[in-house]
Amino acid sequence: MKRVLLKVLSLVVLLVLVSGCLQGQTTGKATMVVKDLAGREVAVPENVERVVAAGPGALRIMVYLNATDMVVGVEDFEKQHPGGRPYIMAHPELKELPSIGPGGPGKLPDLEALIELKPDVIFMTYVDAKTAQDIQEKTGIPVVVLSYGELTSFEDEKLFESLGLAGKILKKEDRAREVIDFIKSVQEDLLRRTENAESPSVYVGGIGYRGAHGIESTKAKYPPFVVLRAKNVADELGEGHKFIDKEKLLEWDPDYIFIDEGGLKLVLDDYKKNPEFYESLKAVKNGNVYGVLPYNYYSTNIGTAMADAYFIGKVLYPERFEDVDPVQKANEIYEFLVGRPVYEELARQFGGFKKIDLSTEEAENSLPTSP
Question: Does position 153 have pLDDT exceeding 70, yes or no?
């Protein structure tokens, strides 16, 4: 009897093993384990063909990697607010893809939509490990967290790590290296041009932060200023986005003021209410107020930040940027990163690189105030 039972058990085990092998051959996928930017180990398919990218800046990374043909769904935010973000402007076809949820700062994707689209991988930004794991378990789809880091300059290791990781998963390693090298080359060029330069004091207002804001919205360690070695008056506040009291701007009284045109309309509205405040600033009196393209919209527009830096450099150090045409340089940057020169389109929307007279300037567009 024991022998019979042993034979039966052996047969059952053998059948299970054979069944498992056959199932693996027909439905299983080879996987590799990667470590994402939230520190999680994630098993992803060896051959990825379908992806979605959720959260601020996630889709931008897919575009930088020339992986738009793999994207099978996008957030409603990308469809409803395409202006001001070169990656979606260069690829309007992405707006026609199915929705994966509302999108926007702090909003998670629609799990049912993700399950229905069956992507091989979900790339996400600005979520913690617990949230990513929860989405992965509920959908049964690998979730890989990417990051933009702090981005105080263009050379940010977290961003580079994200590009490299996504490049590895998508078999786009060569493109990831090209993008990283390109960003580094721009930073090196700007630092070389401004070595030992004497900078005037500068300030940037109108920086987008979860929507559009006015002159009081600024950034300490603003990347274009950092790589240009410019004396940012807001750096005394530390680093990162800051809201200041306007009286502080009077106290600083910088030589040059740059206005992020995503918030220019709000600045002009405020000027009309209180022209005396603005007219008392040295930069306004001396005609040293300039517009730059929206830098921070659904996370940092890396290409725009670099393009802005060349324009700002031309304003602050004209002799060191004598050979630079900022518009041409902007289009070169956009062509490389997103596949199309979109400066003129951005300039039509927001104004482009120019000197601004607050008393006569008009602005039709701004970033959404509550995206």
Answer: no
